[in-house]
Amino acid sequence: MPVFYAPVPENLQMGLAYMGGSVFTNNRTADSDFTREQEDVSVVNELVSHLPLQMLLYFNMFYFPCWWFSAVFMLEVKFYYLPGYYQALLITGMILLTVIEVVRLYLGYIGNLKEKVPELAAFWLLSFMFQLPVLLFFLTDEGIIILPLERAVHSLYLLFLLAQILASFLALRTMTRKLTLLFHLRQFGKVDSFRHARMSPVYGLSYHRSVLPMSPTRDMYH
After folding, report:
1. Among 125, 165, 198, 222, which one has the highest count of C-beta atoms within 10 angstroms of its own C-beta?
2. pTM
């Protein structure tokens, strides 16, 4: 006499499959998976623009003209007392620092506000590779006859620059983490489902609801 087995309900199949994947594959409970998914949703939807960096750029934009006029005035005062090679170095340094500063601030604003990693990375490289060495030269080489006003304005500018380098590094780390997560989620087609309100990217189920007790199939997507 043949034996007929009743088919396993679809909800129960999904619950068992999810439980098996959680226990035997990832060695986590379903609750911890839902917690991780909620964290992924928060990372996908969060704004990662760095507020301290934006504040530093804002104040730097107003401080730089003051620094520039002070530096040019001090250079004019001591210009004829300097050897010829120091005159050439200081003029070249001022021109490079002025041009790069305008480009650097623009890249910092665009990269931070619009969360663009290439622009923010260029801002960090210009700050670390160009502005910092030139400013340290202005502040440490006693052969250029450092005046008290120069030492004061250069020191404050150096503090701005170091704080921006640190803040932009932290902002870059956060942005790259978000971009990496988005890249991996797009491989599984989960980014669009994350953007729906409180929808789970696993089976289209709402968060904080159990898999097993669901009866109507349409509730899975509404």
Report:
1. 165
2. 0.63
